[in-house]
Design goal:
The protein is mostly helical. 80% of the residues lie in helices and 0% in strands.
Length: 425
Amino acid sequence: MTFWELIRDRKLLRLLRVRWSGQITDGLFQSALASFVLFSPERQASAVNAAVAFAVVLLPYSIIGPFVGTVLDRFSRQRAIVLANFTRAITLVVIAFLMFKGFTGVEITVFVLIAFGVNRLILAGLSAGIPLMTTPQSLISANALAVTGGSVWVVIGGGLGLALRRFIDLSTSADHADAFLILVASAGFFITALLATLLHKTEIGPRPHEIVKGSFTQGFREMRDGFVFLENHPDAARGIAATAIHRGGLTALTLTALLLERNTFNNPADSEAGLAGLSVTLSIAATGFIIGALIAPYGVARVGRHRFMRLAISAASISALILVIDRTPTLLALTAFFTALCGQSVKVTNDALVQSKIDDFYRGRVFSVYDVVVNAAIVTGALVAAWVLPISGDSWLLPLLVAISWALVAVVLLRPGKFFLKDVA
C-alpha cells in the first residue's frame, strides 16, 4: 500500500488517531514542562540540568520496562492503553495544581515520572499492535506513517504550546501559564482515552489463544525471554542496537541545540527567544523525520532493508560533522534536518525488520526490550553531553564523538558479514 492508501485504511486509521492524538498532546505537555524546567527566567539552563531532565523523563520506563511486556502479552492492549491515558490525564491535573501552588521540587518530579512511565506503555502497546492492523507487505510504510506522523504531531503540539503560552503570558506569570497548558494537555489525554475505547478489546492483541498465562511478577523473566528471542534473530538485535545508538547521539545533539539556542544564539535573559529558536530547530528536524520516513520504503525496495539501514546510519555520521565545522544557526538547522532524516530512515526500517521476525506471542516482550535499550542509550547520550558540553553549548567535540559513534555502528555493528543475513525487502 502507498502512504495515501494507508491513511484511508479505516482499520489502521483507528489505531493512528489514538497514537497521534496522544502525541500532539504529549508535545504540548513537553513544551510546557521544558518551559517550566529549562526556559524559566528564574532558572538557568545547563547541560547537567538538561541531562537530569532527560533522565527523569526516561527513568520510569527503565523501572517498569520489564513488566510492560508482561502486560502487553497477558492483558488486552486496548484496555491497557485506555487505562494508561486516563491515568495520565489525572496525573497532569495534579502536576498543574502543584505548579499553581508554586511547588518546583520532588512533588512535581514524582508525578512527572508517573506521567512518562505510563506513556511508554501506551507507545509500546500501539507499536506491538501495528502488525495486526495492516498487511506484512505494508509494515515498513505503516511504521513510517505511525512513528514519523507521531513525531511530527509532537512537534506540532510543542508549537501549539508555545503559541498558547505567549497568549496566556499576557495576563499571568510564566509558571502559571505553563500550569494552564498542562491542564489543556490533561484534557487532550482524556480525549485520547475515549478514542482508544473505540478499538475492540482484542483488536491490537493479544488474541485469546495468544495470551500468556502466569503471574505478573514474571516480568523480569519474560523480559529475559525477549532477549533470548533476539539472540536467535541477530539481525533484529543488531538493528535495535543501531537504532538505540543513533537515538543516544541524537539526544546529545538535542542538548547541544537547547544550550546553543538558550545561551549562545539568543540572550540568556530572554528565555522566550531561546524557546522560540529551539522550536524552529525542532520543526526543521520534524521535516527531516517526514522525508526520512517517506524515502525509507523506496530505499528498502531498491537495496534491501539491511543495506539501506547501513547506508542511512553512514549518512547520519557524515551529517553530524557539520557542527564540527562551526556552530551557527544555519549549520545547526542543517544538522537537525539531515540527522533526523537519516535516523528516521533507520528507525522505521528497523521497526519493520523486528516486527517481521516476531510472532505476536512474543511481540510485547520484544518491544519492551527494544524500548528499554533505546531509553538506556538516550540517557547515556544525555549524560555524555552533560560531561562534554559547556553551558554555552558551543563545542566541536560532542558532534565529533557522535559522528564517530555512528560511523562505528555502520562499519562494525552493521557490517555485511554479520548483519546482512537475509537482505530482502
